[in-house]
Amino acid sequence: MRSFLFAAFLAFFITGCSSYQTIPETQVNQVIDQWHEAAANAQFETYFDLMSNDAVFIGTDATENWQLEEFKAFAKPFFDKGKAWSFTSLERNIYSVNGVTYFDELLDTQMGVCRGSGVIKKQNGKPVIAHYVLSIAVPNDNVASLTEMKKIWDASYIKELKSR
After folding, report:
1. What is the pTM of this model?
2. 8 Å CB contact between 141 and 156
3. Keywords assigned by UniProt (predicted)?
4. Cβ-contact 115, 103 below 8 angstroms
5. Are the beta carbons of 116 and 107 closer than 8 angstroms?
6. How far apart are CA 62 and CA 58, in angstroms?
């Protein structure tokens, strides 16, 4: 009886885990590189086809937490001008744990060095970006002056958030 229960558990575990798919690192790199290239070349459809239907993009401003359709509306005027933004990966780390694939990267951008991080998932059999967070990399030596510079804005925004 014990071996039957173990075999049943093992079968259940293997079946349950089969829905998780580790995405090969080469495919992850390809998706992210194509995504950055599509933005630099103002290829709106290509850019957003590389994102999942339920994607979230979090920008550098505290107010920028967009669901896909909101992000498309924000980005469209930039793409329509012929160049959205240009991010070149300087360094990238890719991780796959329990079927979840995520990454972080240092970027050369028009804002200087930034950090991007995100989650890749499969949608209709192809890897796409499901979640992306962009942040400006601030050297530790500059944090105090940056904090002072944005103190008034932060206080106002915190007040607004608390009043909701």
Report:
1. 0.84
2. no
3. Signal
4. no
5. yes
6. 8
CATH assignment, 22-162: 3.10.450.50
Instruction: Compute the Cα dihedral for 116, 117, 121, 125 and give only its sign.
Output: positive
3-class DSSP state of 87: coil
Please state the φ and ψ torsions of residue 98, each to the nearest 5 degrees. Answer: 50, 40
- Token pair for residue 142? 């500059």
Give the tokens for residue 33: 């590189």
Q: Which two tokens stand for residue 153?
A: 């804005």
Q: Which two tokens stand for residue 26?
A: 């080469």
Tell me the two tokens of residue 89: 């990966």
Coil/strand/helix, residue 95: strand
pLDDT tens per residue, range 45-94: 999 999 999 999 999 999 999 999 999 999 999 999 998 999 999 999 99
Rounded (10°) CA dihedral 42, 48, 50, 54 = 160
Return the bridge partners of 135, or none: 115
